[in-house]
Amino acid sequence: MVDYIFVSVFILLQVVLIIQLYFITIVHGRLRAYKITEPAEQTTLPVSVIICARNEEKNLEKNLSLILEQDYPDFEVVVVNDCSSDDSEMLLRGFSSRYPHLKVVTLTEHARFKHGKKFAVTIGVKAAKNEHLLFTDADCRPASPNWIRRMQAQYTPGISIVLGYSPYENRGGFLNAFIRYESFSTALNYLSFALAGNPYMGVGRNLSYTKSLFFKAKGFASHMHILSGDDDLFVNENATSANTGIEVHPDSHVWSEPKTSWSSLWRQKVRHMGAGKAYKARDKRILSLQTGSSVLFYVLLGAMAALQAQWWIVPAVYLIRLIIQIVVYYPAMKKLNCKNVIWWFPLLDLFFNTFISILALVASFRKKVQWK
């Protein structure tokens, strides 16, 4: 009986390893092999940058000028001041007096109608005067004055969505390393799948799409009841292999401030997990297979050790996957500005799979989420 269990577990482990190696080498290998090229010609498409901000006075004071002073010939910045109770309105008036291309839209709290970020984004899109829209958040800063130029350079004929990348700043410590690794893993996945012809999400900290696509899709109408997902659900619903491009040049990155506590990170990830439930069925199946096989890999390794497999089997199987991961992921980490997390990689990968397993379990029972 014990031999039967051992053989069954070992066969299942090999199947899981093959599935994992498919995602690592075939899918993620696409970003590893992706060549960052210079655009054939400088783009000058008029752009509207949209930022939705609720009680973001300090972040706006620190980051807004970096966006308003981008090296680009034709752009406006639309800030939706969403029911802020701090001094954001006064701060934005000061910015408006210095920057004529800043447009401020102020929303006020309704006694009975409580809205989420999707409503604020919709108002920002309607206020924008240009066809090409570029989204970021108030706590984000562009890596260079060429952020707009780089993102818009991907609008070749047929493209109506451009997926960008937003790394988190390096603050030291395990929490920060985990946040940066999680952000890398997310980006590695959605950028690689986009390159493979199956774009399924993007992040609103650095995302661009056209105004006509937004209205053609009726905005967020199909998922307005879900408070999160103004970025990934819109991409999941509207992105195709033909209309989606990616931009990962270092000048196009938008740096974000990381969470500083496990509790705030947990709340953020539970909110994001809630949006994932509304993905297309095909995408949910693929992502479930990918995540499930990754978690099961560690579970089966533990089972093999508990069943007293020969001493070399468990480390050999583990090292096969680990070495291939490092070969594929390190070049991708260099592209995505987080190569130093490679030193934490074995621990982070195990912790990441444990974290998302618990997160998925908790999120499946949690119904209510909020933006801010």
Concise description?
Keywords: Glycosyltransferase, Membrane, Transferase, Transmembrane, Transmembrane helix. It holds the Pfam family Glycos_transf_2. With 372 residues, this protein is of the alpha/beta class.
Describe this protein's structure.
- The chain has 372 residues and is α/β, with parallel strands linked by helices.
- The protein folds into 2 domains: 112 residues, no CATH class; 242 residues, Spore Coat Polysaccharide Biosynthesis Protein SpsA, Chain A (Alpha-Beta Complex).
- 51% of the residues lie in helices and 12% in strands.
- It has 13 helices and 9 strands.
- The strands form 2 sheets. A 7-stranded mixed beta sheet has the order 3-2-1-4-7-6-8, sandwiched between helices.
- Strand 2, helix 4 and strand 3 form a beta-alpha-beta unit.
- Helix 10 packs across helix 13.
- Keywords: Glycosyltransferase, Membrane, Transferase, Transmembrane, Transmembrane helix.
- InterPro entries: Glyco_trans_2-like (IPR001173), Nucleotide-diphossugar_trans (IPR029044).
- GO terms for molecular function: glycosyltransferase activity.
- Belongs to the glycosyltransferase 2 family.
Structural class: alpha/beta
C-alpha end-to-end distance = 55 Å
Give the strand order, joined by hyphens, for the main sheet. Answer: 3-2-1-4-7-6-8
Count of separate structural domains: 2
What portion of residues belong to β-strands? 5-15%
- How many helices in DSSP terms? 13
CATH homologous superfamily title of the largest domain: Spore Coat Polysaccharide Biosynthesis Protein SpsA, Chain A
User: Low-confidence parts lasting 5 or more residues at pLDDT below 50?
Assistant: none
CATH-defined architecture of the largest domain: Alpha-Beta Complex
Keywords: Glycosyltransferase, Membrane, Transferase, Transmembrane, Transmembrane helix
Family: Belongs to the glycosyltransferase 2 family.
Transmembrane segments: 6-27, 286-306, 312-330, 342-365
Pfam families: Glycos_transf_2 (PF00535)
